[in-house]
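This part of the workshop introduces the protein records we will be handling. To make this concrete, we reproduce a full record directly below.
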Amino acid sequence: MKNRSELREVIMKVLYQIFIMKEARLSYDLDSIKKDLLEIENEFVNQVTSGVLDHFDFLISFANKYLDGWSMERFNFVDQAIICMGLYELKYTDTPPIVAINEAVELSKKYSDEDMRKLINGLLDKYYHQEIENGK
């Protein structure tokens, strides 16, 4: 059984694959992609992957709002997946904000460079303090 950190890595990989397929205008089956990466079905993976895809445009626009002089379109799909997952967890789940932010940062340490790790941390932290903490 995978722990939540490992499940987030699976989610990131699922989202990464879907983002590539969408960019190439290829059809995909979400359940098949999840099955390839996960031995048993998991509710957390289902909730977050479906949630990110359902709220994708909203999450991208929110990320762009907090990216000073940058836009999500400039980032690779791994970084986009990490950011979308972090924003989704902050906004739509009961994951404690510090955990959601830390887990995204930990994934970025493994899959991104130092500058991107700092950007992801800053973006999620700014979103948390301006939107959630202030009750917007």
Remarks:
- DSSP finds seven helices and no strands in the chain.
- Residues 4-23 form the longest helix (20 residues).
- The CA atoms of residues 68 and 123 lie 9 Å apart.
- The mean pLDDT is 93.
